[in-house]
């Protein structure tokens, strides 16, 4: 396993070849780091599940370099999905659509839908372009963490999570800190109206404003959707995350900058706004673990806009299995 920091064009070309040869490549995206494999290679995809320790019926997101390749993977694409793709791709949004025959059961968890994303991170985009120029159709990439754990937002965190499970020919590409910091917004586009399955930095308001309509609600729809990120407990550090505001001496503390640190608590992060809150959240949870802190007291931001996605991750981080 190698970690490469100076990702020149030739490093990226080699990484693309390595994907074609069936190896795993962890790479940065603007949301979080992904653990990539050729989405058409069953053996390579099986290794993603092994390395992550993830149940095999949980579907993966296929990453492509541009909207032009969408037809390869998805069919019966509604007009509103095209609108979303034109507005928010490349970027932190994943669309769930009816699959074509290229999207095999080992990608979709045997569902008839496939999740597709066009990331905007330059390195990710270059890697996908190179991979496609070698004949590849798409790169399956879940977040590069062990199942149920905190997603990595830099290469050190990827190393910490999965290095020991990677083999000699796998690699990690370092592209600095992921600038959004939480996973993409997932939007189900298989019905008459879109439904947000996982909130992210493409917010409900942004989608509703673009489409000029209210979005559907998963609970009141009768769509059957399996989504591992919707397990109650997820994104969990080893420390217990407490959202009540109760703080004892020696606890970690995360809150917006304007909120003072309670006496005796150890400040882990002081984001100035929600954008920074999302950016630093996962690193702050990891910092607590590296300091051996057992309780992290978090004051969540107001539950609107990007705050909805932050609250969603915090709630899941606070529930241990
Ligand atoms: O920002 C992101 O989306 C990152 C980066 C690497 O792109 N990827 C990511 O992948 O978060 P992952 O596997 O950690 O989370 C993807 C979620 C899972 O909860 C999975 O169940 C859901 O997407 N998913 C994938 N395919 C689906 C489908 N066909 N229908 C419903 N949910 C799906
Ligand atoms: Mg994940």
Describe the structure.
The protein is built from 10 helices and 14 strands. By secondary structure, the chain is α/β, with parallel strands linked by helices. The chain has a 10-stranded mixed sheet with strand order 1-8-2-3-7-4-6-5-9-10, sandwiched between helices. A 4-stranded parallel sheet has the order 11-14-12-13, with helices on one face. It is globular. The two termini are 31 Å apart. It binds threonylcarbamoyladenylate and magnesium ion. The site of threonylcarbamoyladenylate has 28 residues, from strand 5 and strand 6.
Jot down its keywords.
binds threonylcarbamoyladenylate, 321 residues, 4-stranded parallel sheet, 10-stranded mixed sheet, single chain, alpha/beta, binds magnesium ion, 10 helices, globular
Largest sheet: 10 strands, mixed
What is the approximate shape? Answer: globular
Compute the separation of the termini in Å. Answer: 31 Å
Portion of residues within helices: 25-40%
Question: What is the average of the pLDDT values?
Answer: 94
State the strand order across the main sheet. 1-8-2-3-7-4-6-5-9-10
Radius of gyration: 19 Å
Q: Name the ligand types.
A: threonylcarbamoyladenylate, magnesium ion
Unreliably modeled segments: none
- Structural class estimated from helices and strands: alpha/beta
Note the total helix count: 10
One letter per element, helices H and strands E, the order comes to: EHEEHEHHEHEHEHEEEHEEEHEH
Strand content: 15-25%
The total count of strands amounts to 14
